[in-house]
């Protein structure tokens, strides 16, 4: 069949059809409605369904899925949302429904009339939900009441009733929600009273959770107790709690982040800076992203900066440019600059300027300890600049109180190896180590110690080497085979069976 050539009109018609198809597809994409977020009432109802599914199938992962939405959901709660959710989740004559609604203010008259009008069409009443749904809704009501200072006392009362009901039910399927309840109890006492008042309740609940192997509640309660002790600076009791309890390994990253943060604060107060730095780094790694939990992210980095300075290290400058940390670490950045330059006057000025901020962060006592580090840095800079300097000049440059203090501080710096030098007490000056003979006996002794250390390390490495078993037998067998081959070769040479060309190049 012969090829048919297309006319220009046909080509134009095909192009127009393609253009129309593309435009129709674009219009269809534009007409597709965007998925709107669920309303809070719908989300609460779906969460209640997931909790019932978790109880029916004995799968706690559905409950964990519900609790992951708690932080975002509680920001969208109000009286009408909670009231409507309770009305739709529970049947009309439910006693639990009446109890839950009693914690909320009554609905306005307009809403009541609208509800009456909406009930003209009969509908099948929903079944009574499981008790876990009631505890979950109580948790939402507690967080809602904590938004207003007028309802703090009411939130504490509701928290007490919720704890009593939760302990009376004693259901293992309620354990994930119970861990969140304990956090809400702590928040209620923090806003409406004293955290110390809830400590006996936490201790009793922690013992019960450890006996029942309830890891989630146990992890939450240990963090609640540590926060209570640290809040009142009871570091000895906090250290005893850590030594007498075992933090569950199956706890989530948020609980582990809080635990490492509290351990880091305890170790820093106890002068164990290396362990404190390790725990704080673990807290930073396990913490949620900076934009999700900015308060915790800032608190951990504030303490971490101070601990690094106490260890003798200088934090990275890029840390202070982080968008979440830039404003929060302004005072700490000035402290870092004072420590790095060894300026005691700048350090004292910065400490007085941001004292209120440091006391609110509970880092003031740790920052005061940095005074010795600032002085040591200043002395190191003076030792590099001067071969000989009087103690009086050291007092003036470092803003010390007296020459006796300067002599004591310089002597301690020499003993700790911060600087190399000696104090001439009779003449009242410090001679730096740069004037000593570089090729003196002290240098040879130092090299001798290094050589001895290397030789000892070599000897220990040789002693620690391990060899495969019976490896020497293989070498003996190979040697015996070589000797036998040599004997056979010599015998053949004597008999004249081999020529020089047959023996090869080795012979």
From TrEMBL:
User: Which InterPro entries does the annotation name?
Assistant: CSN3 (IPR050756), PCI_dom (IPR000717), PSMD3_C (IPR013586), TPR-like_helical_dom_sf (IPR011990), TPR_PSMD3_N (IPR057985), WH_DNA-bd_sf (IPR036390)
Question: What is one cellular component GO term in this UniProt entry?
Answer: proteasome regulatory particle, lid subcomplex
Instruction: Return the Basic and acidic residues bias intervals.
Output: 1-38, 478-494
The entry lists its GO molecular-function terms as: enzyme regulator activity
GO biological process terms, alphabetically, are: regulation of protein catabolic process; ubiquitin-dependent protein catabolic process
Q: Where is this region: Disordered?
A: 1-45, 478-507
SMART domains of this UniProt entry? PAM, PINT
Q: Which UniProt keywords apply?
A: Proteasome
Annotated PCI domain ranges read 257-437
Domain of life the protein comes from: Eukaryota
The family database entries (Pfam families) matched by this protein are listed as: PCI (PF01399), Rpn3_C (PF08375), TPR_PSMD3_N (PF25573)
Biased composition, class Acidic residues, residue ranges: 495-507
Family of the protein in this entry: Belongs to the proteasome subunit S3 family.
User: What is the protein named?
Assistant: Diphenol oxidase-A2
Give the organism the record lists. Answer: Armillaria gallica
